[in-house]
Each structure stands twice: as C-alpha cells, then as structure tokens.
Amino acid sequence: MKEEILNEVLGEKLTEFNFILKENNSKKTAEELIKLYFVSGLSFAILSIGVSFVFEFNSVNSFIFFVLCFVLPGLLHYFFYIFLFEKNKKEKEKEIPDVLLQAGIFPKGTSILKIIKYISQSDYAVSKEFNKALNEIQKGKSTENALKGISFRCKSEIISRAINLLIQGNKSGAEMNKVFRETAEDILETQSIIKERIASTLIQKYTLVLAGGIIVPALLGLITGFINEMNFIGISELGLGMNSIERQKIIEVSFNANQIYILEYAVIASVFIAQQEGNTKKALVYSLILIPLGIICYNFALLL
C-alpha cells in the first residue's frame, strides 16, 4: 500500500515536472534530466571526498559537503526551471487586468472568437496562450475547453478567474463589459495589496537571511575560536577544571554541535521565509543557500 502511494506521488511529480519542462521549451524529459542529475551529483560527491581529505575536514563537515555536492546540481537545475515557470506566470498575471479591459471595450454581442483572436494578436505574454486556444478552436475543439486549457497551462488563480469570466460571457451572451472592468480593477487592487505586504516583510526576510547565513555562524565561529585558543594549562595544574584531554573532547563536541545548530537554524529560517512568501517550495532553495553559506562563515571565523 505504501509503495503504491509512493509510486503515485512520484508519478504525479514526474508529470508535473514534465509539464514545467514543456512550458519552458526544454528539449529533455524529466526522466532524462533525473539520470543526468544523478550522474553529475555522484561525480561531484566523489570529488568532495578528495577535497575533504586535502583540507582535513572533520566528519560533520565532510558529510555535509558530500550531501550538498550530491544533491545541489540536480536541485539547483530543478528550481531553475521552477523559477522560469513562476517568472512567466507572474508576467502573465500582471497583464490580465489589461486583457480584461481590452475584452471590455468590445460591444455587446461580440463573438468570443473575435475577442480571443484580438488578444492572441496582442503583445501580451499571455497572448501565446490565447493563440494556442485559437488554433485548438480552429481545429474543432470547443471554445470552452480551449479556454480551460489556458487555465490548466498557466496554473494561476488570477488567470483562471479571468478565463471563467470569458466562458460565462460566452455562455450567457450577457453584457459583460462592466464585469470585465470591475474584475480588472479588483485584480489590480489585489496585486497592489500583495506588493505592500511583500514590502512590509522584506526587512524581516533579509534579517533572517543575514542572521542564518552570516551573523549567527560568524559569531559562533569567533567565540569557538577564541575559547579554543585560550590557555587553560595553569588552571588545570592547580587542580581546577578539566584536564587537557577532557577539555579537547568538549571542544570537539561543541564544534560539531555548533555546526548542527547552524544547519537547524538555516532550515527553520528558510521555512519561515518561504511561508511568508506563500511558497513553501522555496524553503529548500533558501536552505541550499543558507546552509553552505553558514558553514563557510563559521569555519572562516574560526581562523580569525
């Protein structure tokens, strides 16, 4: 049962990734890219073993470095395609109010096909989607299904809302000019509110990024380096505190614990930032940036 659920989830993810690749005009399929990611990741991971040996990384650093080298090539490539898709989607969403206003200038009784053709010949980023819909209609597909295809490809609530209005207008034959204009104004107002909310959380976001990637790791590194260089020989000779062997073990444990803490802090900060942006998928992207940055800052501060 668990295997069936896992296979179903993996199948859905592969289908989703293939769709994103197709929308980004990629010539490779998800299956081909996964094989490429695995080979490149394994190659970098093997190289990381040699680098860890040359620079005498401890076991924690070596493990983190190995895992990052294995997963980073594939994950960065994957999120690059996600970024391109989301970027194109936002451009299309930004233009939807203009599209609705353009649809609103047509007189009552205008054929929906004429509106679709007009939008498809415009310079909007979403015009390509309407051109695809127009070609499908000319090949015999129903207008409603062709328009729904736009919603499916764009994966956007804002675009789906505009498409539903066009479908309703086509079905009812009612006066939709006013509805188009009011909806366009409503979308513009919503987009303005979202921009204000993003601006208000921007300082908090960058504070977490700086703290998780630079400030906290650097402070921990400086403190650890300072304690490691302190001379406790005189104190131990007086019978106070721990002997040198015990003290060295404590320092090694705290060294590893600090790096685990940096990793945890980076993950928590990444999840929080992603939730603020309303896109939990970005948590992994932020983690892949903050974790290596934090480890580098920590080890650099140890040398100061």
Description of the structure:
This protein is an all-alpha fold and 304 residues long. 84% of the residues lie in helices and 0% in strands. The chain is elongated. The model has no long low-confidence stretch (mean pLDDT 80).
Q: What are the SSEs and their pairings?
A:
Layout: H1 2-23, H2 30-54, H3 59-104, H4 112-120, H5 127-138, H6 143-154, H7 157-172, H8 177-229, H9 233-237, H10 244-277, H11 282-303
Helix pairs in contact: 1-3, 2-3, 3-8, 3-11, 4-5, 5-6, 6-7, 8-10, 8-11, 10-11
Main sheet overview: none
Mean pLDDT: 80
Report Rg.
28 Å
Total E-strand runs:
0
Q: Specify the structural class.
A: mainly alpha
Give the overall shape, derived from the CA principal axes.
Answer: elongated
Listing every helix as H and every strand as E from the N terminus to the C terminus, the arrangement reads HHHHHHHHHHH
| Multimeric organization | single chain
The N- and C-terminal alpha carbons lie at a distance of: 55 Å
Q: Uncertain spans, ≥5 residues at pLDDT below 50? A: none
Provide the helix percentage: over 70%
Strand fraction equals under 5%
* Helix count, DSSP H or I runs of 4 or more residues: 11
